[in-house]
Design a protein that fits this description.
Elements: E1 2-6, E2 10-14, E3 28-32, E4 34-39, E5 42-48, E6 59-63, E7 68-71, E8 73-75, H1 90-94, H2 99-104, H3 109-118, H4 121-137, E9 140-146, H5 153-169, E10 173-181, H6 192-208, E11 214-219, H7 226-238, E12 242-247, H8 255-261, E13 266-269, H9 275-282, E14 287-290, H10 292-298, H11 305-310, E15 315-317, H12 331-340, H13 346-352, H14 355-360, E16 378-381, H15 386-391, E17 398-403, E18 406-410, E19 413-414
Parallel strand pairs: 1-6, 2-7, 8-9, 9-10, 10-11, 11-12, 12-13, 13-14, 14-15
Antiparallel strand pairs: 1-4, 2-3, 4-5, 7-16, 16-17, 17-18, 18-19
Bound molecules: N-(iminomethyl)-L-glutamic acid and fe (iii) ion.
């Protein structure tokens, strides 16, 4: 099966070998007026000029209508599967009650834990599928999804099963992470070490059932200490899980160092990362996974992205989609916030939403670049150039999305058989 995408205004892609660090993040190749030949789900040829010689009886053609084309976007940090929503806490948040205070009072994450425990697998599936469709329309073609709203084995498994089922039934490829250490559940409040022991014990079941590739911990004041984080991650490492860590979101308590020492794939949030940890990150292959929509929604500081790039760190940008700190599926908005608030340049943002998150998920040989031989995960944006995509904010610029060479979004609508 062959498809030729023609009438493209310009193609933008990184050509760097990941992790793409520091100033190399700004290296983006631009090709004007290209055409792309897709063969069996992969990029077969990228040309300029007359594409008609490449058409044969089996070929389909797709008119990109003078849109620009970039690799399908990769969102490497979400909490896609959960029950309920938290608008009932929104007024408290606006009035200035801090995020950790709401959690301490049994709300926040623990509120969503209650709704997720109560929800049936089908209800969780339906709710997550709706969000996933939105994400696809915003141009996301690969996604990381965490559990963490069960805080007991049964519900964590329920969440991960839903994510796996969505992966089977939806065009977006999903990579799963076990986040049993997202908070201390109410029933263990006075017995935290028992909960940590339970999480460590449960890792074996998650592994043997093949439910997750990654393990994550929320290392934060009032949640898990750096020492506890280390204990959980070391156990995960021994079982062969790869690691990701939520840390340096509110107070810097040492999570980044633990993550780097254990060669975690990502450290996520980093709004309050120390200068010393920035230096250490630059010498590691751990990706700094920045979540600017969370800073926006929590009205908190933004991660020092400019400083990190200047020091040679490799950055990814992710949505952190979840019901508490980032209730929005609009990943394009996340990228626009990265421009406006993190002072990242459009080229750097493209690297941080394609090849670097691909590297953090170990899928960089298949996706994250537009290159012959790689999977044809492509996004056509109704924009005159890449700068416009980051500048004209808050709307959906998607014209078309191709996943594994199949047209899955056409003029803003989901089309075709889902997988
Ligand atoms: O990444 N910080 C911890 N976890 C999520 C928020 C989860 C929630 O509030 O439900 C985050 O922001
Ligand atoms: Fe998160």
């Amino acid at each position: 099966m062959k498809t030729i995408i023609y009438n493209i205004r310009a193609l933008y892609t990184s050509e760097e070998k990941p992790p793409v660090k520091g100033e190399s993040m700004a290296n983006i190749k631009r090709i004007d007026n290209p055409f792309i030949l897709i063969e069996n789900g992969k990029i077969g040829y990228i040309g300029q000029g007359d594409y008609k010689n490449y058409i044969d009886d089996e070929s389909q053609v797709f008119d990109a209508n003078q849109t620009i084309i970039v690799p399908g976007l990769i969102d490497a940090h979400t909490h896609l599967v959960f029950g309920g929503s938290r608008e009932a806490e929104f007024s408290q948040k606006i009035a200035g009650v801090p995020y950790l205070k709401i959690l301490e009072a049994g709300g926040g994450i623990l509120n969503t834990v209650e709704s997720t425990r109560k929800a049936s697998e089908q209800a969780l599936f339906n709710q997550a599928k709706k969000s996933l469709d939105q994400m696809l329309k915003f141009g996301v073609t690969s996604l990381e999804v965490k559990s963490g709203y069960g805080l007991n084995l049964q519900t964590e498994i329920k969440q991960l099963k839903v994510a796996k089922k969505l992966n089977d039934q939806h065009p977006i490829d999903i990579y799963t992470t076990y986040l049993g250490a997202h908070a201390i559940p109410k029933e263990y409040k006075s017995n935290r070490q028992d909960y940590i022991d339970t999480v460590i014990e449960d890792l074996k079941t998650i592994k043997s059932q093949g439910l997750a590739d990654y393990v994550d911990v929320f290392c934060e004041t009032g949640v898990f200490t750096a020492q506890e984080t280390k204990q959980i991650l070391e156990a995960a490492n021994k079982l062969g899980f790869k690691l990701r860590v939520h840390t340096d979101e509110i107070k810097p308590i040492g999570g980044t160092k633990v993550a780097i020492d254990l060669q975690a794939k990502t450290v996520d949030h980093l709004m309050v990362i120390t200068d010393e940890d920035i230096k250490a990150l630059a010498y590691s292959d751990t990706i700094a996974n920045i979540l600017p929509s969370t800073s926006f929604f929590l009205n908190q500081d933004y991660a020092p992205a400019r400083k990190m790039i200047d020091q040679g760190v490799a950055l990814a940008i992710s949505s952190d989609y979840n019901p508490g700190s980032t209730p929005s599926e609009n990943y394009q908005l996340t990228l626009q916030i990265a421009g406006n608030k993190l002072k990242m340049m459009p080229n750097e943002i493209l690297t941080a939403s394609t090849i670097n998150p691909a590297y953090s998920l170990g899928i960089h040989k298949e996706v994250g670049k537009i290159k012959v031989g790689m999977q044809a995960d492509l996004l056509c944006l109704d924009c005159p150039n890449l700068d416009y995509f980051i500048y004209h904010y808050g709307i959906n610029h998607t014209y078309a999305v191709f996943k594994k060479g199949q047209l899955v979004v056409d003029q803003g609508r989901i089309v075709g058989d889902l997988k």
